[in-house]
Amino acid sequence: MHQSPTENFRPRVLHVAQPVDGGVARVLTDLTRAQLAAGLGVAVACPDGPLAAELRSLGADVRHWRANRAPGASLGAEVRRVADVVADVRPDVVHAHSAKAGVAGRLAVRGRIPTVFQPHAWSFEAVDGGAAGLARRWERWGARWAARVVCVSEAERLRGEAAGIRARWTVIPNGVDPERFRPAADAVRPPLLRGAGPGDRVVVCVGRLCRQKGQDVLLTAWRRIAGQVPGARLVLVGDGPDRAELAAAAPDSVLFAGAVDDVAPWYRAADLVVLPSRWEGMALAPLEAMACGVPVVVTDVDGARETLPPACAPRCLVPSRNPAALAGAVTALLLDPSVRASLGRRGRAHVLSAHDVRDTAAAVTGVYRALLDDGPPAEAPPVGPAEYERPEHRPTEYGRTEFRPTEYGPTEHRRAEFWRTEPTEHRESTHS
């Protein structure tokens, strides 16, 4: 049974977002849709583009925020623009998504309004050397202006703590829409795959074409895979700064689909979905693929173990940046259709149980309620051990699970295992 926000709880939330593509855009779109349906007032400050247009079509109050993806000389002006939007919208809660919006949003508000920061993977993982050190120092400092830091996985929270970030944490795993992402009895292959034979195995990788997502590692592994699985095709779905370099290194069996409006048909056309990331918070692509009943192979980065059903990890989880291990896991699954089918069923049941976007959205609204009930946040940095609150999954009468926030005192920090529970009973009709 899904949680729903408490009746008559109608705060006005301002989401601040940059970047505006990939997983951040999908998370924000799902949150906006759910929050509007629950009666919340939703405003979004983001750069113009497809995301802004989609959010506006949902009914959100979208405010143009001119901002670059990376920090730079324009930061001061970007902070002032956020401050102007805040003054005009007068939100009850500010929710900043990802590194750039997290910097600008927190500097603009500075704790005067309850502020939620959601990193969607830490900024210091995207850079090396001195830049990583600067990013860590900022995150330690900026945490004072976040009434709550929401992480999408326990691993992401632990990485933040290890970097010295002292915050009041909440872990809310990413969720996907199980109605949009569901198996298709008669999946029709997209036109790009019309030339593939009925026995050809199709591997799909969905993600921005960039260093983070590791498509270069997958291409290295693909040479071994293609040599052992005749007729195998690899489709890279997405666009990004590394496209030209990847295309130059790709053999003929690799196809580039580009950016697409709807990724679900690509999942359904796949025999296997692979995400070879170098770092993540908790990637959406594996959850979407599993919701479609398709098995996945993912690298062991933050959030990956929490994404998978525990029984699937031995076959579906490989070390990051290891083309040989990736090739071995992908090849083994492509050659074993019965195992793929079993993993696909387990994955679908797991997503229904633990990663339904309706539960995710309700848990986020629960964070807003807690902050507004607590009153204005203190502007001083946290003193003493950080507070930690995570959603606890408890079985419902349908064999699913639901989010229940659980707080831990200073001596009670421990690795959460809430993603380990599989449903004892699965009824697809609960989502029909």
TrEMBL record:
Keywords: Glycosyltransferase, Transferase. Pfam families: Glyco_trans_1_4, Glyco_transf_4. This is Glycosyltransferase. The lineage of its organism: Bacteria, Bacillati, Actinomycetota, Actinomycetes, Kitasatosporales. Residues 22-180 form the Glycosyltransferase subfamily 4-like N-terminal domain. It comes from Streptomyces ziwulingensis. Residues 373-432 are annotated as: Disordered. Residues 387-432 have a biased composition (Basic and acidic residues). InterPro entries: Glyco_trans_4-like_N (IPR028098), Glycosyltransferase_grp1 (IPR050194). Gene3D superfamilies: Glycogen Phosphorylase B.
